[in-house]
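Protocol step 4 of 6: structure prediction from sequence.
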Amino acid sequence: MYRIRKITFRILIIYGIILGFSQFLSSCLSFRMSESEIQKEFFTLAERPHEHQIAIGNRSINYAEIGNDSLPVVVFVHGSPGSWSAFVDFMKDTTLLKQVKMVSVDRLGFGRSHLGKAEISLEQQARYLMPILKKYKQQGQKLIVVGHSLGGPVIARLAMDYPTLVDALVIVAGSIAPQLEPNERWFRLPLHFWPIRWLIPASFRASNTEILYLKPELEKMLPLWKNIHQPVIVIQGQKDNLVDPLNADFAQKMLVNSQEVKMVIVPDMNHFVPWEHPELIKNAILQVLKK
């Protein structure tokens, strides 16, 4: 009995150490800039982003905004994992600030929107973002949504379910085709269950959960693509190792009722478009504004 207790005690100590280290990693790998980092980024500018929380039921969404209220609005939706600060470079771009107000969100499970507690339903993700779009659309401005990676299907679902709130879409390396989702359940499924799920950083825990269930969520959207009538710009690199480049072909095939579909396909570009090729997203936004 004593030996069993001793072994159990040691296991608990080891588990506690691992859990503590995991929490430390969570704070380091939240994919969100600290307040001091944000202040440093905007130190030389006249304005910096302001964060807000909006409550929907028993959950709340965190988002940041910057710019003049009278301008058209661009809403950025990050991938997985990520946070609103993934688009911080756009929010300090003086050319964009002269022409648009910018809003960037923490999707559920990331940043300050219930970190680690993912929402697997794309329909629900869109529903939780809807009040933010509605807030700005009520002011009468044009509203453009930009979604990177898993943010791509989220903004597509927004346009499907709330067409009056979205005027144009920019899908950047979007994982939107269910048949192209990689079969990774062999390692994602074990990471989803206790106690292993609590041994990985919160941002990765949320990411693993939503990606695990992404394929059936994308399948639910298949009959709804015909509901997208807004202009769409699709940006995709052919050297993307995280999202199959054929997702761009899927978008062109499914957007049968869109007013206009423009494809921006770059042969030597990878998945990290917002950081390595931000000019493509910036140009897409400026093009949409001219419509």
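Step 5 (inspection) to follow. Residues 2-28 form the longest helix (27 residues).
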